[in-house]
Design a protein that fits this description.
By secondary structure, this protein is of the alpha+beta class. Helix content is about 30%, strand content about 40%. A six-stranded mixed beta sheet has the order 2-1-6-5-4-3. A hairpin with a 2-residue loop joins strand 1 and strand 2. It is globular, with a radius of gyration of 16 Å.
Length: about 150
């Protein structure tokens, strides 16, 4: 927490993001989404953008379809003003199609970073970068030369 971040704001923002990971991502509780995600939500990645709670739910449904035991762990979390940055680790067994890749039965471990911006006590915008190259390597879709 920076000195410009009031403690009263930092704690709620941190708790909102932690609750989002726990309830929405790990426990598939879509009812919590309206409490935690702003109706004007935007999700941005290097590949594109999706909007709204429905778009976010569709993204999570795709990942849960391919990784039914999906679990997200927060490795680190930093709060500054209206922003929360989390270093995350996703794990799950690839037991159905994921991003067009047929099931491999492999246990995946994927790292990522998410910058969440909050407004009115809800997540309104997120910028996410996942190590998709690492995930594709684990799935055997791509390989890199030996070092």
């Amino acid at each position: 927490m920076t000195s410009s971040t009031p403690a009263s704001q930092a704690v709620p923002n941190e708790m909102i993001v932690r609750r989002f990971v726990d309830e929405v991502l790990n426990n598939d509780d879509d009812s919590a989404m309206s409490d935690l995600v702003h109706r004007d939500y935007r999700h941005l990645t290097p590949d594109g953008e999706l909007r709204g709670r429905d778009g976010l739910k569709a993204l999570f449904d795709d990942y849960r379809g391919g990784l039914p035991d999906l679990n997200v762990v927060i490795d680190d979390l930093v709060v500054s003003g209206d922003k929360v940055v989390t270093s995350i680790r996703l794990t799950g067994t690839h037991s159905s199609d994921l991003l067009g890749i047929p099931a491999t039965g492999k246990l995946l471990r994927v790292h990522g970073m998410v910058l969440s911006r909050l407004e009115d006590g809800k997540i309104i915008e997120e910028w996410e970068i996942l190590d998709l190259l690492g995930m594709f390597r684990q799935l055997g879709v791509v390989s890199l030369p030996e070092r």
